[in-house]
Amino acid sequence: MDDASRRWCLVLPVKRLSGAKTRLGPPYDGDRARLALAFALDTAAAALACPLVAAVQVVTDEPEAAAALAAVGAEVTGDAPDAGLNPALVHGAALATRAHPGTSVGALAADLPALRPAELTAALRAAARHGRSFVRDAEGTGTTLLLSRSARDLRPMFGPGSAARHAGSGAYEVAPAPLASLTRDVDTAADLDAATALGLGPWTAGLLAGRPLHPPGTGEARAG
Fold it and tell me: What is the dihedral of CA 111, 61, 12, 86, to 10 degrees?
């Protein structure tokens, strides 16, 4: 397989919706759970629309999110390690690569509601020449995407300051300049404003427009 055509399984961690997005604040306090699910749906749909993505493996113990994400085509597993974010990602990566032999693996933040398939494709192509790579978030300190040619070498180090840890561990940094939608994760109301300016996916856009969260499968990912 040449680098340009390398195929990837991306692992999306989705936490319990009741405890999700606690930093969003006004005016979104009452919509945190629905927004967190919409973010995850838009992220998964955009990733699945990327031609280099073989599968999206969701790791979650949230029944509503599991059902919704399975309905848009993601593969879903529970958080068997139940030991925090990084062990959950290792678990998901191992499952995904066993189910899809010959693929490489990545951990993708589940709160990228403006994600565009073309930008994800560009990042995957840039990363394919390296054993292990990452994309820094828009704030500069976090990580939105960590990639490895093999699941055993993924070594996720997510948490505050993860970009410095991933860089310090030898991961190649994919240049963020043309990847605005891939770097724009959403934790605060200001983050959501910035993502809105980039162009939101159908679930998040519909929710903010006052429409009910569409049943999974009725929304379409943006073209890249």
Answer: 100
Q: What does the block give as tokens for 150? A: 């093999």
138 CB-near residues (< 8 Å, 6+ apart) = 176, 180, 183, 184, 185, 191, 194
- Domain count for the chain: 1
Q: CA 98 from chain center: how many Å? A: 20
Amino acid identity of residue 106, one-letter, is G
Give, for all 224 residues of the chain, the pLDDT tens digit. Answer: 456 678 999 999 999 999 999 999 888 989 999 999 999 999 999 999 999 999 999 999 999 999 999 999 999 999 999 999 999 999 999 999 999 999 999 999 999 999 999 999 999 999 999 999 999 999 999 999 999 999 999 999 999 999 999 999 999 999 877 899 999 999 999 999 999 999 999 999 999 998 766 544 444 444 44
Could you list the residue range(s) of the whole structural domain that residue 157 is in? 3-208
Identify the CATH number of the domain in which residue 180 sits.
3.90.550.10
Residue 188: count of CB within 10 angstroms of its CB: 14
| Measured distance CA(101)–CA(145) in Å, rounded | 21
